[in-house]
Amino acid sequence: MSKINYAAMSRRAAITAAALAAMATLGACSGGGGAGGAAEGDMAMGAAEGAKVTVVEYASVTCPHCAAWQNNVWADFKTKYVDTNKVRYVFRELPTAPNEIAVAGFAIARCAGADKYFDVVHTLMAGQDEWRTGAVTPRDFLFRVGNGAGLNNQQIQECITDPDALKAADARAQAAFKAGVSGTPAFYVNGTQVITPGGEGASLADLSTAIDAELAK
């Protein structure tokens, strides 16, 4: 699980806009609510709001543990519970280091539109190794993903430096902090955290135990 440095969050929010603007400029020159309730900015799939069971995931597109969960668990979880509308799955953005890349990635996902949001998020997670290993610059990776979602370079640059979007991103992170979330990925079933010790987030077995118990009530 990736840990969150909340002590630096306020300072980080203050410099995020400048960091993203610098990343976009340098890249161009070089050629790179409570845990269980509804919250502002929630992105969701599956059952409608007010469903009997709501599963909330806090994650970051720069978190390798989140990427591992997406790769190993997401498809089976989605088939079993989301596609069948047995649960409302809510994804909440909680940027982890490198923070400026995470915030920019989430901004691009939102600018791509609600219908493409999850596809962009999953693409960003799946491609982490590309920029981590230096195969591509973070800027080039982000812009390529944004282009693939139908955004042109000007739209992407405006998207990742939009001050209102940056403020909203910080507000979502602060809300996670107030909800007691200390790392990613973090999973909650109807407000109760599900933890699989030693795992990359909650296992499908542990999630199923918690979800099925709630469905049976």
From TrEMBL:
TM annotation in the entry: none
Signal peptide (residue range): 1-28
Keyword Disulfide bond in record: no
Keywords from the named record: Signal
Presence of the UniProt keyword Zinc in the record: no
Domain Thioredoxin: 34-216
PROSITE patterns for the chain: PROKAR_LIPOPROTEIN, TAT, THIOREDOXIN_2
Organism superkingdom: Bacteria
Coiled-coil portions: none
Function: May be required for disulfide bond formation in some proteins.
Family membership noted in the UniProt record: Belongs to the thioredoxin family. DsbA subfamily.
Protein name, UniProt field: DsbA family protein
Native source species: Brevundimonas kwangchunensis
Source organism phylogeny: Bacteria, Pseudomonadati, Pseudomonadota, Alphaproteobacteria, Caulobacterales
